[in-house]
Specification:
The protein has helices at residues 36-43, 64-68, 74-79, 95-101, 103-111, 122-132, 146-158, 174-179, 182-192, 213-220, 227-239, and strands at 23-30, 49-56, 89-92, 118-120, 137-142, 162-168, 199-202, 224-226. With 254 residues, it is of the alpha/beta class. It has two domains: 23-121 and 230-244, Rossmann fold (3-Layer(aba) Sandwich); 124-226, 3-Layer(aba) Sandwich (Rossmann fold). It has a four-stranded parallel beta sheet, sandwiched between helices. The chain has a four-stranded parallel beta sheet with strand order 6-5-7-8, with helices on both faces. Helix 4 (95-101) crosses helix 7 (146-158). The radius of gyration is 20 Å and the shape is globular.
């Protein structure tokens, strides 16, 4: 019995385009990050925006030392994001890690895999957003323990911000950060704000702050910038998308 098959080339039916996604965002998320990828997808204005994600190994605890341990892993994680395909921007999803390692270091590690690509991080994007609102004096809310809080405060002050008040849940476990309810973040945000603050900055990509930005802004009557929101906003702008997105704070309409 002859089992030879004839495999025909359907050349007349082949059509190629530029592939999925007019605006392409590469995301380097931490291995125990439950929030960023979900928030990015929820905030997408349409399927024209696509997000390609790689994960980087992280420890169960968020400390200044554990954040530094991710440094040698960043380039390889970046290299795994559609390596032969086009990306417009790469976002490194760790606010405190950027504060500890510095933006220049993060950018160089990402560009080692993607030469010349635009790079965004939560804290640098948040600073750009705060500047748009001309917010110099800010209230800060984080989930971190104090050695990480110190790095965040120092980074903000080194980049021209004055801190009116600094409040924290003081949680060390990344898993516990992900369990914070949006309602608890809302309540803490109201407590963290000060009358003399131009804006409220909610740090950390591990917490579900994006879900309550609008409600906090309505209650406080001032801009609220969160780590994931700002990083997604700047990623969109650098990728070339300039449309407005409602439901996630004033920033997404700028």
């Amino acid at each position: 019995m002859n089992d030879t098959k004839n495999f025909e080339l359907l050349s007349k039916s082949i059509e190629l385009d530029q592939g999925p996604g007019q605006y392409r965002i590469g995301l380097v998320a931490l291995s125990n990050d439950y929030v960023t990828e979900r928030d990015f997808m929820n905030m997408r204005p349409s399927d024209d925006v696509v997000v390609y994600t790689s994960r980087i190994r992280n420890t169960p605890e968020c400390t200044a030392e554990s954040l530094r341990q991710m440094e040698p892993l960043i380039t390889e994680a970046t290299s795994l994001i559609v390596p032969e395909g086009r990306l417009d921007v790469v976002a490194y999803s760790c606010t405190s890690g950027t504060a500890v390692m510095g933006f220049d270091k993060i950018r160089s590690l990402i560009q080692a895999a993607r030469p010349g690509i635009a790079v965004v991080t939560p804290i640098t994007s948040s600073l750009v957003a705060l500047d748009l609102f001309e917010a110099q004096r800010i209230a800060v809310l984080t989930p971190y323990v104090d050695d990480v809080n110190a790095g965040i405060a120092r980074y903000l002050e080194d980049h021209g911000k004055s801190i009116s008040a600094f409040s924290s849940f003081k949680i060390v476990e990344n898993e516990t950060m992900a369990l914070l309810t949006p309602q608890s973040i809302f309540n803490a945000a109201l407590e963290a704000d000060r009358n003399d603050a131009d804006a409220l900055f909610i740090s950390c990509t591990a917490i579900r702050a994006v879900e309550v930005i609008d409600q906090i802004e309505q209650k406080l009557g001032k801009p609220v910038i969160t780590a994931v929101q700002a990083m997604f906003w700047q990623s969109l702008r650098l990728a070339g998308f300039n449309g407005k997105i409602s439901g996630y704070g004033q920033l997404m309409c700028l």
